[in-house]
Amino acid sequence: MGTVKTLHVVGYKNSGKTTLVSHWITVLQRLGMKVAVLKHHGHGGAPELPPAHTDTAQFLKTGAITTVVAGGGMIQLIQQKEHSFQELKALASSADPDVLLIEGYKKEVGDKVVLIRRDADWAELKSLSGIIKAANSEEIFADRMALDNWLQEWIQEATTDETI
User: Partners of 113 in the beta sheet?
Assistant: First the structure.
């Protein structure tokens, strides 16, 4: 692994984080960049597991701490272990992306785009470290081109490539 441009997209639930990250993946791919995503599961508890009838579910149920399923050029990794934020970024970056988009992890260090649904959100989020852009959730739909242009400028000017 080497260096990667890393950008957090943060905000409260239903602020448009997933919509913006998904859109930016396509924008960055059009620019010829490989993109990885690390998402914080902010819904409480563990992410949903594969269906109970699968081999993976059986392995986990009987005590495996890690399962890796590989095929068709894709892998699925499930681990029953708490990882540090740095370890999670390393896992997400293991395929050598040019850009790592991080959805959430608002308290972690890094450049951040903050999505605001209402004024009360900004009052609470403006104290986060690393804010380089704030956008109203409506801009994600109404003025997406301006956000895309901002992203392209950030890609070209970012001096914060991170060694992972």
Answer: 9, 133
Provide DSSP, 4-70. Answer: EEEEEEEESTTSSHHHHHHHHHHHHHHTT--EEEEE--TTSSPPPPPPTTSHHHHHHHTT-SEEEEE
* pLDDT band, very low/low/confident/very high, at 68 (cuts 50, 70, 90): very high
Considering only CA atoms, which of 150, 73, 103 is closest in space to residue 7?
103
Cβ 4 vs Cβ 98: under 8 Å: yes
Supply the pTM of this predicted model.
0.90
pLDDT of 162 > 80? The answer is no
* C-alpha–C-alpha distance, residues 57 and 40, integer Å: 22
Element (H, E) at 152: helix 144-157
What are the CA-CA distances from residue 33 to residues 29, 36, 99 (Å)?
Answer: 5, 10, 7
Token pair belonging to 45: 């508890």
Q: What angle do CA 61, 66, 69 make, to 5 degrees?
A: 95
DSSP state of 94: T
